[in-house]
Amino acid sequence: MEKLKNEWKSCGINTEMCKHKFSNFEVWNAASERAKDTAIAYYQDFAKVRSERRNSILFCGQVGSGKTHLSVALAINFLKKKTRVVYMPYRDVITKIKQNMLDAEYYCKLISNYQTCEVLLIDDLFKGKINESDINIVFEIINYRYLNFLPIIISSEFSIDRLLAFDEGVGSRIYEMSKDYVVEIKTHINNNYRLK
Ligand SMILES: Nc1ncnc2c1ncn2[C@@H]1O[C@H](COP(=O)(O)OP(=O)(O)O)[C@@H](O)[C@H]1O
Ligand SMILES: [Mg+2]
């Protein structure tokens, strides 16, 4: 168990996040039911769809609705089956990448991990102020994965329409890849688990 947890740490999954399991994700309203069902369906279909065009899953919308919880639950289950997932906390990673943009070699090394891993989990995509270089970095990662049919698990507080409005190139690729497993949780206080 310790060994497993250390392995997860190297993928960016910390001890706190290990609590995010399917078994403790409560179905407490229609939105949480749909979210959980879609996540489980994705997990079950994964072997079949992983190299297909529609091989990804998107959780978007309401803050506090369990998007990160279910994304991490998926990651933990994949890691248990030796499928290598890399966790990318969007805000932290993008900041680090931007600080290193002038060092081309280091920049490539930083983003290549997110481009090439077996499964990428982008948590909280486009959180915070975004500008053109954020979009460019995200495009480089998403487009690489799109071209190479590599799955992505994405959580974002933005609706699909907003994601498309930020950048159509990025938004439409994400949508195409996750079309079969889109969980859009309506922005409403009733969907915030913390306030239930
Ligand atoms: N349906 C649920 N059952 C159990 N815990 C939940 C559920 N939804 C959310 N939580 C918990 O509420 C907190 C916020 O969820 P989180 O996944 O961070 O939300 P989001 O990423 O959508 O903002 C976390 O501690 C998470 O484990
Ligand atoms: Mg979250």
From TrEMBL:
What Pfam families has UniProt attached to this entry? IstB_IS21
Q: Which domain of life is it from?
A: Bacteria
Give the residues annotated as coiled coil: none
Give the Gene3D superfamilies listed for this entry.
Answer: P-loop containing nucleotide triphosphate hydrolases
UniProt domain IstB-like ATP-binding: residue ranges = 52-160
Q: What is this protein called?
A: IstB-like ATP-binding domain-containing protein
Classification of source organism? Bacteria, Bacillati, Bacillota, Clostridia, Eubacteriales
